[in-house]
Amino acid sequence: MHELSIATALVEQVERAMQQESASRVTKVNVRVGTLSGVDKEALEMAFPLASEDGCCSTADLVVELVQARIECNACGKASEPESLFFACEYCGAVDVNVISGRELMLQSLEIQDNE
Ligand SMILES: [Zn+2]
């Protein structure tokens, strides 16, 4: 399962961040996932507790924020949000476009509890 390896990498990233912060417990993990990243939101949410095992993320909630794909047209310069994977400018129909978002797969923020 593709999402399990992504979840494992995410857990490792969280654990490193927690070491840096000297935090003992993470309560919430916020990630941003672009609709073009190829990652399935539900599958990632299911994989996260599996990847956490008994580690510091095992009691954390994973919150996935989906990032809509956005393209910028090289012909007319307008940005639009394509509905399909065949990108074309919704204003002028040009296919000469740049993808400006939607490929994200990143750890956005953590909510942690400090050691008491
Ligand atoms: Zn255009």
Q: Report the strand count.
A: 6
Determine the structural class based on helices, strands and strand pairing.
alpha+beta
- Count the helices. How many? 2
The percent range for strand residues is 25-35%
- Give the cofactors and ligands: zinc ion
Q: What would the keywords be for this entry?
A:
116 residues; alpha+beta; hypothetical protein PF0899 fold; three-stranded mixed beta sheet; three-stranded antiparallel beta sheet; 2 helices; 6 strands; 28% helix; elongated; binds zinc ion
What does this structure look like?
There is one protein chain. By secondary structure, the chain is of the alpha+beta class. The chain has a single domain (2-114), classed as hypothetical protein PF0899 fold (2-Layer Sandwich), CATH 3.30.2320. Helix content is 28%, strand content 34%. It is built from 2 helices and 6 strands. The protein has helices spanning 2-21, 41-52; strands spanning 23-34, 61-67, 70-73, 79-80, 97-101, 105-114. The strands form 2 sheets. It has a 3-stranded mixed sheet with strand order 2-1-6. It has a 3-stranded antiparallel sheet with strand order 4-3-5, with no helix packed on it. α1 packs across α2. The longest helix is centred in the first third of the chain and has 20 residues, at 2-21. It is elongated. 23% of the residues are buried. The model has no long low-confidence stretch (mean pLDDT 92). Zinc ion is lined by residues 73, 75-76, 78, 89, 91-92, 94.
Spell out the blueprint of helices and strands:
Layout: H1 2-21, E1 23-34, H2 41-52, E2 61-67, E3 70-73, E4 79-80, E5 97-101, E6 105-114
Parallel strand pairs: 1-2
Antiparallel strand pairs: 1-6, 3-4, 3-5
Helix pairs in contact: 1-2
